[in-house]
Specification:
about 625 residues; 3-stranded antiparallel sheet; alpha+beta; flat
């Protein structure tokens, strides 16, 4: 490397060490949280800046773990799994062309999410977020994906890649700044093998031993007379590994397109502008989306419910173990023996089994069992208080955690309020998840706008299992306003949505002044109720609507003749929307074609109605 490259590498490594030290207190909290989740709940942060385990103070001490953090975490994750966060794209204008562009962008987001297994990725990110307080998605353009453009398959058209980055891999410039876009620079640090570095960057780098995280067992639990092991989160060395540091810098006066520096080991493998035009207003930005558990205005990485519950979990373990120690004293007893009256070695080894003949020195006081009393009632009261604190701090009640209703609650309304409170507490985390999904959707659209110069094909599976293949290019992606059509699925369950629809049906909201419901409305209601292909007529209605939308595109350039088998009511509704759009009214020739097409549909509809009346009349005569 040249002298300038050596200086860049040295400056980057020095910056990385500084960020490591700045983030160390936060990282120790993450490691402590992970230990408590997996059951190593006698761990603590040592003054030396590491996570250690406390030892037994006495051989008889009970040190069992009564893990309430794990079921709380599982309950919160199961609730977050209900957040499907189906994003859609809103057209920039009411024009039919912008609406079609928004529809293509929405389908593209859905197709890319399915190809990357986004549901599984979201589950992994939710787990990291709940345990540590945050998780990150990395959205990049992978040149090894997509359709092959060469015979050997090495040259491909490329495609979007979504990956989950644990918080251990992210190093911001300022830990105290909570906003991702407000960070002047961000480092993404990951451990690679030497062969992988050679394959990606074509550089040969010497490997070394690097500490990575893994799980181990430790003998820190157990009770009187037995031992138990619990897993713990520790570090271990990975051999022949390379530390790869990617430093992303936002655009500045010196670097108007930003800067990306990649160092593998001690070699500079890349130095150039930010690769992706993924920011607002056509600017370059970070390829990351952040998801947090609880917002912390003074911490970039947010906060976790686990770290709030740890003090309660420690107190609960202490109460339960002291209670069992007291019960051990009552069950096994404590024997008082006068010095020299009996053979204490034999008595200590054998105890006082039933039928034992106890020989003691004549004239001395015989051994006697001390009165251990009863377990104090304060233990039970403190245990109940701590269980209530678990609910208060975590926001997860026993209705959802233990799948049972509290003994003092019998009202259905009260149970509904408890469930609603659970949903309210976790809705803040769900909002962060939905915001991350919205940001990912914008990244997907902007990456395709940057790289999809030639027409491409994508396949998408609809709600009813039908497979659709659509073609697009960068010119079709004018809209990138990603929104959500529905509220969070946590609050809007399928049963609640159905009940609301039924109430609106009773009020006559969906019918006209004659009490009739249009076919289009019936189709949309079946879709909202989630019945899918429950009724065969819905398939035909959707097919007619799709055909009408295809005809709208053809009517822009040529005349289209309606078919006699068309559902004329559905076609007229779709064509009328095109007819009143600004693009159609400004184009006189197109407007005339659409009006003529609608008139032809009405003629065919009137003809069908006349035939139906004649059949009805003749049918009545035959019956007479």
């Amino acid at each position: 490397m040249s002298k300038n490259q050596d200086e860049i590498v040295a400056a980057l490594l020095e910056d990385f060490k500084k960020r490591q030290e700045d983030r160390r207190p936060v990282e120790l909290n993450w490691r402590l949280n992970m230990n408590f989740v997996i059951g190593n709940q006698f761990s603590y942060i040592t003054p030396q800046g590491d996570v250690g385990e406390s030892e037994r103070q006495y051989f008889w001490q009970c040190r069992e773990v009564y893990n309430h953090i794990a079921p709380i975490l599982e309950t919160r994750l199961s609730k977050l799994a209900r957040v499907k966060a189906q994003a859609s794209v809103r057209p920039s204008t009411p024009d039919e062309e912008d609406a079609a562009s928004a529809e293509i962008a929405g389908k593209l987001i859905k197709a890319v999410s399915a190809e990357n297994g986004f549901s599984n990725l979201m589950g992994i990110a939710n787990t990291w977020s709940e345990v540590t307080g945050c998780a990150f998605y990395k959205i990049t353009w992978d040149t090894s994906k997509g359709m092959a453009l060469s015979a050997d398959g090495k040259l491909r058209e490329g495609d979007v890649k979504i990956a989950v980055c644990p918080p251990f891999e992210i190093f911001p410039e300022n830990v105290a700044v909570a906003d991702l876009d407000a960070q002047p620079s961000i480092m993404h640090v990951k451990v690679f093998g030497t062969d992988e570095v050679k394959r990606i960057w074509g550089q040969t780098v010497d490997g070394r031993d690097i500490n990575v995280f893994s799980f181990d067992n430790t003998d820190v639990a157990g009770g009187f007379g037995y031992h138990a092991t619990v897993p713990r989160f520790v570090t271990e060395k990975r051999e022949n590994a390379v530390l790869v540091i990617e430093k992303y810098q936002l655009p500045t006066d010196e670097y108007p397109d930003g800067r990306l520096i990649i160092v593998a080991g001690d070699k500079l493998v890349h130095d150039g502008p930010l690769p992706y035009v993924n920011g607002e207003d056509g600017k370059r930005g970070y390829p990351f989306a952040r998801q947090i558990c609880i917002e912390n205005l003074s911490n970039f990485f947010g906060s976790s419910v686990v770290e709030r519950v740890i003090p309660v979990q420690r107190a609960y373990n202490a109460v339960k173990n002291r209670k069992h120690e007291f019960m051990n004293r009552i069950a096994m007893g404590v024997l008082a023996v006068e010095d020299g009256s009996v053979d204490t070695d034999v008595l200590e080894e054998e105890g006082l089994p039933p039928g034992k003949i106890l020989i003691y020195r004549q004239g001395s006081t015989p051994p006697a069992m001390l009165n251990a009393g009863q377990v104090p009632a304060e233990f039970g009261r403190e245990e109940e208080k701590l269980l209530n604190e678990f609910v208060m701090i975590s926001g997860v009640s026993e209705v959802t955690t233990y799948s049972q209703v509290p003994s003092n609650v019998s009202s259905g309304t009260a149970i509904s309020l408890l469930l609603e409170q659970d949903d309210t507490r976790i809705s803040l985390t769900a909002d962060s998840l939905r915001e991350a999904v919205r940001r990912i959707g914008k990244h997907i659209i902007r990456l395709y706008k940057q790289y999809a110069d030639m027409p491409r094909l994508k396949r998408i599976t609809g709600e009813n299992g039908e497979v659709e293949i659509f073609s697009f290019s960068a010119g079709n992606l004018a809209s990138e306003d990603v929104v959500f059509d529905t509220v969070s699925e946590i609050e809007d369950s399928l049963s609640a949505r159905r009940a609301m629809i039924y109430d609106l049906l009773k009020l006559g909201i969906f019918t006209d002044e004659n009490g009739a419901m249009s076919t289009r409305t019936k189709t949309k209601l079946l879709e909202i109720l989630g019945f899918g292909n429950w009724e065969q007529s819905r398939d035909a209605d959707e097919a007619h609507i799709d055909k009408a939308m295809r005809e709208n595109l053809e009517l822009r350039t040529k005349d289209v003749v309606p078919d006699v088998f068309d559902n004329h009511a559905l076609h007229i509704a779709e064509h009328t929307k095109l007819c009143v759009s600004r693009k159609c009214t400004e184009n006189e020739a197109m407007h005339e074609r659409v009006v003529a097409h609608i008139s032809r549909h009405k003629e065919l509809a009137a003809l069908d109605a006349g035939v139906a009346n004649l059949e009805k009349q003749f049918g009545g005569l035959e019956n007479e």
